[in-house]
Design goal:
Strand content: 25-35%
Strand order of the largest sheet: 14-15-16-17-18-20-19-21-22
CATH architecture of one domain: Sandwich
CATH topology of one domain: Immunoglobulin-like
Number of helices: 10
Shape: globular
Helix content: 10-25%
Oligomer: single chain
CATH superfamily of one domain: Immunoglobulins
């Protein structure tokens, strides 16, 4: 439920203008040692200093200890090239794609997507790179050279930090969607870039209300629902240096997701799936092809499980959602598709958990195990006896991170669960239908009433910027610290847990 907040205008003009001023004053990202990139204060300006052919800034996916993928888009078609190496020798190696850039349509423009895999890297080691056209044009122009660091080895004991966020990619700013900058999301992206996170895990619904190349966007085109992720105020800076791992959500059900967020190496290494899968009819739904993403990797002694717990809103068939009602019809379909005893994903997960009987484990997926949002409530199908929650518990998973509900919530369950759905999409209320006993801390916002909501020990937010957030997660010395950070840069509800040895 949106409480008609997308169309509200009256309450937020002053707040929006104040946020724009904050963004213009603060929006700087460090891309390499000693070098800073500042974005222009005007909403949705081109990336200053970049070559005009660059339409989508380079971003990183499929990061392993020895390789990473670099993707970007241009207005002209060529074979993409990346020059890379260790700091101080960033052009030590060069790799050129074997194919021309793949045509995509963004808004009204034909653009060309390029992806190049960098190899020969070392675990836990910094590297730097620049992207070029096949003819040798430096697409970053006068911008500083981006740098990143590969994940640590599986058995490393060195401390490391990563970020978690969910439900992002919306141009609505404080309840108003007029195509201007979503300052809350812009600040969250900026803060992730400055957090020291080695990588980010996105828990689904990376763009709203759906998934298209236009919604992902580019550095130039603007408007409601346009460039809500790759616009210059958003992932364009942070994505150059922080690799992203993700999974699908109920708003990600098109092949576009697979083409943008390729993860072939980590998927193959874990015998997972990152592909378009045909699902038969369940409970009267239509047979349908959906992007399906589940895979795992280990870094720093922790096994990361990225799972597919999602289903499209428009294909619920005869599902009723049980006692939960219509909000949970997609949960019921997801349970039939993914979490029956004989389903492919359930079998894969149980086998991988059995193959890793010791050590710390984190799980990430979209539908929430426990949520006090009225419109995106707890998924009773996943928490039922023998369901996904039981499988994760018996498999030794330490912490679960979910999205879908556009709130923040921490639950004192076993395993501990978080809902982190405040990454950029319009945030929702929490606790309006009551707060559950396991809800230790939760915050939300009502745009129709222009006020915050809270559960557990949380103070009631006085500004929606206190609800937009990401999680900064640090693994160190046999424990993990989760530090939620709101879009104002303030940490809250910081918790530390021991990890399974």
């Amino acid at each position: 439920m949106r409480d008609n907040r997308r169309f509200l205008r009256t309450h937020s003009n002053a707040r929006r203008n104040r946020r724009r001023s904050l963004l213009s004053a603060a929006f700087a990202l460090t891309l390499g040692a000693g070098a800073a990139l500042s974005f222009a204060g005007a909403a949705h300006a081109d990336l200053p200093g970049a070559d005009p052919q660059l339409t989508r800034a380079p971003y990183l996916t499929d990061a392993t200890t020895t390789s990473v993928q670099v993707s970007w888009a241009t207005s002209t078609q060529s074979r993409g090239q990346v020059r890379y190496g260790p700091p101080g020798d960033c052009a030590a190696h060069s790799v050129t794609s074997t194919a021309l850039g793949s045509p995509i349509t963004v808004g009204t423009l034909r653009e060309y997507s390029n992806t190049v895999k960098l190899t020969g890297l070392s675990a836990g080691t910094a590297f730097c790179y620049r992207v070029y056209t096949g003819s040798g044009t430096d697409l970053l122009g006068t911008l500083p050279t981006p740098s990143s660091t590969t994940p640590d080895a599986a058995n490393s004991t060195a401390p490391f930090t990563f970020a978690v966020l969910g439900d992002t990619g919306e141009t609505t700013n404080s309840g108003v969607d007029d195509g201007s900058v979503n300052v809350n999301q812009a600040n969250v992206h900026r803060l992730i870039g400055a957090s020291g996170a080695r990588f980010v895990v996105q828990t689904g619904d990376i763009t709203h209300p759906g998934t298209s190349q236009t919604q992902y966007g580019d550095l130039n085109q603007t408007g409601p629902g346009v460039s809500s992720w790759f616009g210059p105020s958003y992932w364009a800076g942070t994505g150059m240096k922080v690799p992203l791992f993700g999974t699908v959500g109920n708003h990600s059900m098109t092949p576009t997701y697979l083409s943008v967020w390729k993860q072939p190496t980590v998927t193959a290494a874990s015998n997972g799936v990152f592909d378009l899968v045909t699902y038969p009819s369940y409970l009267g739904s239509s047979q349908i092809d959906y992007p399906t993403t589940y895979y795992a990797f280990t870094t720093g002694g922790v096994r990361f499980y990225l799972l597919d717990a999602a289903w499209g809103n428009s294909n619920t068939g005869n599902a009723t959602g049980g006692a939960c009602g219509s909000h949970c019809a997609i949960y019921e379909q997801d349970a039939h598709a993914h979490w029956q005893p004989g389903s492919a994903e359930m079998q894969w997960l149980q086998a991988d958990l059995a193959a890793h009987p010791t050590g710390a484990k984190f799980a990430f997926f979209h539908f929430p195990l426990h949520s006090d949002s009225a419109s995106e409530p707890s998924d009773a199908y996943l928490t039922a006896t023998g369901g996904l929650e039981d499988v994760l518990r018996t498999g030794g998973v330490d912490v679960v991170f979910n999205g879908h509900s556009h709130i923040y919530q921490r639950n004192t369950t076993n395993p501990v669960t978080y809902v982190t759905g405040g990454g950029g999409a319009d945030v929702n209320t929490v606790g309006t239908s009551g707060c559950s006993a396991s809800d230790a801390y939760a915050v939300g916002w009502s745009y129709s009433r222009s006020r915050g909501t809270a559960c557990g020990s949380a103070p009631v937010p006085t500004d929606d910027a206190q609800v937009y957030h990401f999680l900064k997660v640090t693994v160190s010395g046999g424990s993990v610290t989760v530090a939620p950070t709101n879009s104002l840069g303030q940490t809250f509800d910081v918790q530390t847990y021991p990890l399974t040895p």
